[in-house]
Amino acid sequence: VRVVSFRTGDPELLREINRSLILSYLRHHEEVSRAEIARKLNLSRATVSNVINDLIVNKIVTETGSGDSALETGGRPPVILTINKLDKFVIGVDLGTTNTVAAIANLKGEIIEKIRIPTDRNHSVENIVEQVSNLVTQIVAKANIKSEMVIGLGIAVAGTVERATGFIKFSPNFNWRKIHIGQALFDKTGYPAVVDNCTRVMILGEKWFGQGKGFRNLFYVNVGFGIGSAFILDGKIYNGHSEFGHLVITDEKIRCGCGNFGCLEAVASGNAIERKINEQLSADGNVWITAQMVAEKAVSGDMDAQAIFNEVGNYLGRAISYVANLFCPDKIIIGGGIASSGNLLLNPIIDSFNTHTMETVKQNTEVNLSSLGIDAGVYGAIALVLNEFIFSGTHEILGKASNK
Ligand SMILES: [Zn+2]
Q1: How many angstroms is it from 261 CA to the middle of ligand 1?
Q2: Dihedral sign, CA of 300, 302, 305, 310?
Q3: Count of CB atoms within 10 A of residue 290's CB?
Q4: Do 41 and 21 form a contact (C-beta atoms < 8 A)?
Q5: SS3 112
Q6: Band (394; pLDDT cuts 50, 70, 90)
Q7: 223: helix, coil or strand?
Q8: What is the distance between the alpha carbons of residues 213 and 251, in angstroms, rounded to a whole number?
Q9: Which residues are CB-neighbours of 390 under 8 A, at least 6 positions away?
Q10: Where are the alpha helices (DSSP H) in 329-389?
């Protein structure tokens, strides 16, 4: 835990900061006492007690009884504190154009129920909002909790999103322009919703629950049908725009969806894998081979399929070497649907990465496949809503939720 010393005349702000520090400490440590928090965060006992009492009243923290060790030594037993896992819940929704995944979790981020359904083909805002709303109702029933125990929704969606307002400027996948999706979901479900771009949400999922835990500088690549990317710099998600998938990686005149030639996405995405294998097999007839089928062929020893994965891995390895040389992240995580291909993909990526990356950079930057895979989106949506409504302490929105 980094302790920030803060000079301010604003007691409210100071209290917010202390509250966040204390909650963050509780999130990362299983069972702790008030005294331990005060000691580790360098705060006064009175300050800690003050914040903790407030968190207990709001059912965010709970007392789980006394520690034993002090009893044995004859001292007064400290009361053990933990994040309350029974009284408040959040729902994360990964809103994809093909599938929508919803999960409900307690305040520790432990998932209680998860539902995956095909996204309705009618992509009108009203229709999708209706579908998400039904999914929310369904998952609350499945988790067998009272609806007022849910404090909010976290939504991951493709496109240009303003996280602070839940406003989608443009989502090409849904063909949405200027949509207040957060407001629409709040109006329909009664739950406040925080919305962000799906790849930024995925890197948040990796940071809280996956390969990114404990690292301050991360680069995440989402290799699905297309290729997306996100950064965490000095522990903070970079909210600006990036187009890693459109780095030009080859002089071959392969047309990309963006209109340019030779982009990474044109040669190393799920879409590129499918195009390549189906071109090769076009003489054989009319069965469309999916990227998943190519992976299965490669695993079972098919040389042509293996060659495709080698080539894709090569391009990805070279492209992430550019990023590594640029800002030397602690870790680069390759996620998305393709992460399930395992060493078939990772080996050529690592070979190519090692060939193209500077020695000093290589020593600092680890390259991994995501352990969360396509679930990074729904995990990240849980982290998004927990962070917004609990751990960063946005009291106003909490009040709105509890008044419903
Ligand atoms: Zn492109």
Answers
A1: 7
A2: positive
A3: 13
A4: yes
A5: strand
A6: very low
A7: strand
A8: 37
A9: 23, 60, 88, 90, 107, 151, 398
A10: 343-356, 359-364, 376-386
- CA of 272 from ligand 1 middle (Å) equals 12
Alpha carbon of 243 to ligand 1 centroid (Å): 8
> Does the structure show a pLDDT above 50 at 259?
yes
Token output for 204: 């948040």
Ligand 1 center–CA 112 separation, angstroms:
39
Distance 263 CA to ligand 1 centre (A): 5
- The residue length of the chain stands at 404
- CA–centroid distance, residue 267 to ligand 1 (Å): 10
Rounded to the nearest whole angstrom, what is the distance from the C-alpha of residue 319 to the centroid of ligand 1? Answer: 13
Residue 246 CA to ligand 1 center (angstroms) comes to 4
Cα 131 to averaged position of ligand 1 atoms, centre (Å): 32
Ligand 1 centre and the CA of 335: distance in Å?
19
DSSP, residue by residue, 31-81: SEEHHHHHHHHT--HHHHHHHHHHHHHTTSEEEEEE-SHHHHTTSPPPEEE
Task: Report the C-alpha gap between 182 and 26 in whole angstroms.
Answer: 29
For residue 116, the model assigns a pLDDT of: 96
181 C-alpha to ligand 1 centroid (Å): 28
**326 CA to centre of ligand 1 in angstroms:** 20
339 CA → ligand 1 middle, Å: 21
Rounded (to 5) percent helix, strand, coil in the chain: 50, 20, 30
CA 265 to ligand 1 center in whole angstroms: 6
User: Which one-letter DSSP state was computed for residue 217?
Assistant: S
Share of the chain above pLDDT 70, in %: 91
Write out pLDDT tens, residues 297-350: 888 989 988 999 999 999 999 999 999 999 999 999 999 988 888 899 999 999
Distance from the CA of 259 to the center of ligand 1, in angstroms?
Answer: 6
* Residue 303: C-alpha distances to residues 269, 283, 297, 312, 398 (Å): 19, 18, 8, 14, 56
236-237/227-233 β-pairing:
antiparallel
Per DSSP, the three-state class of 245 is: helix
**Tokens 């290589």 found at:** 362
